[in-house]
Amino acid sequence: MPVVQDSTQQEPSAAPASRARDLLPSVVPALVVGAVCSLLLVGVSRAAEELQDVLWRTVPDALGVGRYSVLWMFAVLVATGIAVGLVVWKAPGHAGPDPATTGLDAPVLPPVVLPGLLLASALVLAGGPSLGPENPIIAVNVSLAVWLGARVAPRAPERGWVALAEAGTIGALFGTPVAAALVISEALAGQRIKGHLWDSLFAPLTAGAAGALTADLVSSPSFDLDLPPFGSPGWADLLSALTVASVGALLGMCAVHAFPYVHGAFRRLRHPMLMLPAGGVVLGVLAALGGHLTLFKGLDEIAVLAADPEGWSAGGFATMTVVKLAALVVAASCGFRGGRIFPAVFVGTALGLCAHALVPGVHPAVGVAAGVLGVLLAITRQGWVSLFVAAVLVASPGVLALLCIASLPAWLLVTGRPQMQLRADGSPVR
């Protein structure tokens, strides 16, 4: 007679969960790594802000030149290209690998390379190119964690230090360990995990919490754009989210497909003292077209847009969307050191507000969240991070369900296609 298994009984787990005494030794290293990674990020950001204030306020005021006049924007962007070109040319290790070949999964670099990479990143943040701090700072923190960890605990696996540094930096970047947990869990999805998932996430989540808490205590980052409140979603909101997210994904894929060609054009110049100043020239032209809000990493600038959703016409928002996306492609192609998440958030925000300006029935919160979701899915190919960033910008529970549904067609448009990251030979990663 066959035995019928009771559906309420579960098969024992193939791999037993870790014991508490196995996880506890990781707490202190995770807390230290997370806090140090956060402090390094805040320190570089603060230094860049001070330099930005000098370049864009003190000097033009002393010269009697408009802070964001076309002439001054062009001059500062070209000068930034020259300065970063000198660092890439002369600094040991040339400020790290070609940024077009790197993503959030940072390579481990020799310590001698890190000062040049930090300097180049700070110059970019201050000078106006459309890149954020995430990729270089993660690379620096990962490399330092691996280098110091190998001396403190030689038997500890390198991958463990990498995970702690990535989680600590991401937690500090977004002000919450949730973002770090999402990124790490997405990275673990393609690996064979021994034991429970939460065992693998325990130490990185601790590092992410330490990084986020340190950033909150020191700098109090906030992503809430304080858009008009959004209540319960309706059918029109669902249609808006589906449409804007899909358009954002298609727009982002246009940039992804253009990326290797723009990168190849700058590579033909062969020398950083030609590539980077040339990139500064192109960025200066784009700044003249899009205005000063299309400069910098974009986080402060999206707050300006969101503070007055009716302040620009649909054409104005569309111009900023296209110009910022083009500036992101150029800055990432010509050799400026920086990440692509924050500029992509600006592109999605401007796209969502453009949709609201075209069709007033599109709620600003829905338009912004869906636009950011679609663009980030195309640019980063990080599903959880895209959902998380889009959701925290509007801080409305009603939007989350819309985003989950809108992510489905947007993901179908981007999955399996080239990514905004290149191999050493210039071909796109898939």
Describe the 3D structure.
With 430 residues, the chain is mostly helical. The protein folds into two domains: 25-218, no CATH class; 235-414, Clc chloride channel (Orthogonal Bundle), CATH 1.10.3080. Helix content is 68%, strand content 0%. It is built from 16 helices and no strands. The longest helix is centred in the first third of the chain and has 37 residues, at 27-63. The chain is globular. The relative contact order is 0.14.
Q: What keyword list fits this structure?
A:
Clc chloride channel, mainly alpha, 16 helices, disordered N terminus, 430 residues
Whole-number total of structural domains: 2
Weakly predicted, low-confidence segments: 1-13
- How is the quaternary structure best described? single chain
Q: Which band does the percent of strand residues land in?
A: under 5%
DSSP, total strands: 0
The best one-word shape is globular
Continuous helix count: 16
Rg, rounded, reads 22 Å
InterPro entries: Cl-channel_core (IPR014743), ClC (IPR001807), ClC-type_chloride_channel (IPR050368)
GO molecular function, one term: chloride transmembrane transporter activity
Keywords: Membrane, Transmembrane, Transmembrane helix
Main location: membrane
In short:
This protein is mainly α and 430 residues long. It is built from 16 helices and no strands.
